[in-house]
Structure formats: C-alpha cells, structure tokens
Specification:
The complex is a heterodimer of chains A (295) and B (181). Chain A has 295 residues and is of the alpha/beta class. Helix content of chain A is 48%, strand content 10%. Chain A has two domains: 118 residues, Glutathione S-transferase Yfyf (Class Pi), Chain A, domain 2 (Up-down Bundle); 151 residues, Rossmann fold, CATH 3.40.50.11810. In chain A, helix 2 crosses helix 3, helix 3 packs across helix 4 and helix 3 crosses helix 5. Chain B has two domains: 91 residues, no CATH class; 70 residues, no CATH class. Chain B has eleven helices and no strands. In chain B, helix 1 packs across helix 7, helix 8 runs antiparallel to helix 9 and helix 8 packs antiparallel against helix 11. Chain B starts with 5 loop residues before the first helix and ends in a 9-residue tail after the last helix. The chains are: A alpha/beta (295), B mainly alpha (181). At the A-B interface, helix 2, helix 3, helix 5, helix 10 and helix 11 of A face helix 6, helix 7, helix 8, helix 10 and helix 11 of B.
Chain lengths: 295, 181
C-alpha cells in the first residue's frame, strides 16, 4: 500500500486510456463517472486514437488469429502514440490485451504474424493497467476530503465476478490485494460493505443473451445471497456484470447495481451523478431517496 | 483396441497444453459456474480426448458453453489450461464443419465478429438486432431492450475505426488456423 500522505508526483498525472465497445455505449456511465472522478483528482486521462474492439469472447472462441491481432493492433497503436501507461476499465478487454501482450512478448512467431499482417512489430513499450490499480494510486485521505454527501445507510455487497478474482499469473490482475482498499473506499464514502460469500461468482457473461433462463438462476442466487447478508445494493467493477445483474434474474427482488465510480461521484456531490442514476435498469433513486442521499 | 491419439495431439499443439496430468480430481468441474449447462464435465472432455473420441467432443455442448472465466485453471492442481483447450476445440469444430450443438452461441459470436469486420467496433444496437434476427428470438427481452434504449443505455450512432483497411486485413487473412466467418 502507498505511503501515507504521499509525496506529490508519486503517481501519474496523465494516463492513456483504452475504452472498448461497452464503455462507449451500454456502460457509458461507468466511463463518465470515472472521468469525472479523475478530474476531481487532477488525473488527466487521454483516450488513445483509433482503438478497435479487443475481440472479446467471440474472437478467442472461434479463431486465435483474430484474438491475437485485434488486441495486438491496439498495443501497436498505443506504442506508436507514445502512451507509456494504458488504462483499461473493462475486465474482459484488459484480459484480452494482456493475453496478446504476453504472447507477442514471449513468442517470436506471434510478433512475426503481427508484422506480416499489419506491417510492424510490437516492441513492448506499453504498460497495461487495470483501472482499480489506478484508483488505488489515489490516496484514501484524498477521498475523505472530497465527500459532500455521505452515503449513510447504503449497504453494498461488493461483487467482483470472475476475471478480477483469478490469480495474477492467469489474467495479469487479481483483485485479492485490493479488496481491503475497496472496502475502505466504500466505508470512507459513508456506506457499509457487507460480508458475503458470492462476490466471486460468475454473472453468466454472454450466456445472459443465449441461455437467459440459466443465467436468471445464476443472478437470482447472487441477489439472494446479497440480501441475506443485509445488502441493499450491489457494487460492480465490470460493464458486463452490471448489465447482467440488472437484466437477468426473475425469482428474487432485484437490487440496484452501482459502479464504484458512481458511488464516489454521488458522495462527492458531482452534478453529473444524477444523470448516471437515470440510466439504470433497476432504478436506484427510490432507495437513495429513502436514505436521504438524494433529496 | 487401438486408440487414435492424433486428435489429442492436435489439440495439444494448438492449445500448448499437455493432458496426461489430469487425474480427474474434479476441481475444474466443481468450480465451473456453468457446468450444469454442459453435457460433459471439462475433465470428461479430457478423458474422451485420451480415448480419441473426436466426433463426440466436437459435437458437444460443453465446448460452446465454456465462458473462459478461468475458474478451472485457477483450481487445477496440474494447471491444465482448460479454457485454451476449449478455444482449440471450438476452432477445430468450425474448421471441420461439424454440426454445432449450441447454434445460438455460435450466432452470437458470428454477429459480434461481423460488427468488428464492418466497423472495427461493436455497434451494440445493430448487434442485438442482428442476433435476434439470426436466431428468431425476436421478442425475448424486448421489454428490457426498450427500457435500455429509452434510458439512453445504447449509443445511438455507431462509431468506427478510421483505418478500417487494417481491420479488414486482420479479419480476412488466414492466420495459421483456417479462415472462418
């Protein structure tokens, strides 16, 4: 964990950003709320130019070449654009880019393939960073000083899903060492972080579309366990988890599902935070009003 | 009985994995969040490969149901990369043109990649519409879809990559595996 009252300049003031498809559409409020938070902490976030889809599950599920080259092109472009640190917010995009990075750096044949298709090689000049690592660089006392409306009465079940919770040697990021920090953030905002056992269960990912009934049951189990633990909302870190937890499930009373950055914006009283709340499929406003967080 | 090992060797080559280490401890199956929707456990697929049961494997639901969440890999005492094995098996099923046991899942992948081919990015509105047309599941989640639209959860106009020529090259060339679309 970073030193207390850290010296200025020990964290980046400018970082490159790879959005990915969800963050520009169905998870736009995840992006917006993070950007507003970054502004609040004077972190400059620069979106990389001409990024393309990382390939997601459909690419690696059907053709390893597509997966390598789609993700690889983004690494190439970031390197050419002089981006030293590239932040990714979607866990799936992060894992796809990280996987391509590993293959390109470890397997000469893969880099030759990239060169044969796109005319240039990847030199390894970009450091990929998951957004929770960037969040962790911001100090807890900085959060404290920004709070205008404490989220008193909000009891969040922090839900990490699948890709965040695998060992670092598989995915390049493991939420394990960050869990205490994230619970601390939630408490600093004035909310509670409940203890529960389902934070690492899968949300059903793309089966939510193709096997809806099956994923309904998965989401119901998650909601049920969150409710039993006394939560009145779920807190997510992934665009797909957020949509699935709102969209699926039919047997258990639904819970509002927030992105962590939305909660930070809400507690900081950012004017835009109201507009994010209106985009939710499960309207969180009645809960927030009943707690006096929204007037 | 003579067992044909060529199939397993091919999966080994493509996935970079060795499958002799599996002793069927069921850690993979026990931790898999979607095992109930599979027709064979992940470890059973390995056993079937050892017996050379190519056709049954390539026609199984299991290879399409796997989400690639890495739960199995995180728990396997022998670190068999089952998600990489599933990737290789799906690729082979498509190349050999066998009947796919989960056509909706394949339609999902296909429509998604069509978006990538067209714009370099996924235009969610069109992607959802085309998936529904392709599978005939027109009215499933209609209400939720409209709600998402009304609440501004979909980007209304598509965005696209400027250098589409590069995307086309990626999607059209043969990269070691056979071309598939």
């Amino acid at each position: 964990m970073a030193a207390k009252n850290g010296v200025k300049g020990d964290r980046p003031r400018k970082i490159g950003y790879y959005p990915g498809c969800s963050l520009t559409s169905s998870a736009k409020e995840m992006e917006d709320s993070f950007m507003e938070m970054a502004k609040m902490f004077s972190l400059e976030v620069v979106t990389m130019e001409d990024w393309n889809c990382c390939g997601s599950s459909p690419a690696h599920s059907t053709n390893h070449g597509y997966a390598l080259l789609l993700a690889g092109r983004n690494l190439l472009l970031a390197e050419e654009q002089g981006i030293q640190e590239l932040m990714v917010m979607c866990p799936s995009c992060f894992v796809r880019l990280k996987e391509a990075e590993r293959k390109l750096m470890e397997d000469e044949e893969k880099n030759r393939l990239l060169e044969s298709v796109l005319g240039r090689r990847y030199g390894g000049g970009v450091r990929l960073r998951f957004f929770l690592e960037v969040l962790n660089d911001l100090k807890m006392d900085e959060f404290q000083s920004k709070i205008r409306t404490p989220l008193t009465g909000l009891k969040g079940a922090l839900y990490y899903g699948c890709l965040l919770t695998r060992p670092e040697w598989i995915t390049g990021f493991d939420v394990g060492p960050y869990e205490k920090f994230l619970e601390g953030v939630v408490r600093t905002l004035g909310a509670e972080a409940v203890h529960w056992g389902y934070s690492r269960q899968c949300c059903g990912a793309h089966l939510a579309v193709t096997k809806a009934d099956f994923v309904d049951r998965m989401v119901d189990r998650i909601r049920d366990h969150a409710r039993r633990a006394g939560a009145n909302c779920l807190v997510t870190f992934c665009p797909l988890c957020q949509v699935n937890l709102e969209l699926r499930g039919n047997g258990v009373e639904p819970l509002p599902v927030f992105y962590i950055s939305e909660l930070i914006g809400l507690a900081a009283g950012l004017p835009k935070s109201r507009s994010w709340l209106k985009k939710h499929l499960i309207d969180p406003q009645p809960l927030l009003r009943s707690l006096g967080v929204l007037s | 009985m003579k067992i044909d090992r060529r199939f397993m060797e091919e999966v080994s080559r493509r996935s970079g994995q060795r499958f002799e280490g599996c002793f069927h401890c069921l850690s993979c199956a026990g931790g898999c969040p979607v095992v109930e929707a599979m027709d064979y456990n992940p470890n059973q697929i390995i056993r079937m490969m050892q017996f050379g049961m190519q056709e049954k494997i390539l026609k199984s639901r299991t290879i399409w149901i796997c989400l690639g969440c890495f739960s199995c890999l995180a728990q396997c005492p022998n670190r068999v990369h089952i998600p990489a094995m599933m990737d290789a098996l799906r690729e082979m099923a498509l190349e050999k043109g066998v009947e796919v046991a989960e056509p909706e899942i394949l339609a999902f992948h296909r429509q998604f990649l069509n978006q990538v081919r067209k714009r370099g990015r996924v235009y969610e509105l069109e992607f959802v519409a085309r998936y529904k047309l392709a599978t005939g599941a027109l009215f499933q989640d209609m209400g939720a879809g409209l709600k998402m639209l009304m609440r501004g959860r979909f980007q209304v106009l598509p965005s696209r990559v400027r250098n589409l020529r590069e995307i086309r090259k990626i999607m059209e060339e043969n990269h070691g595996g056979k071309k598939w679309s």
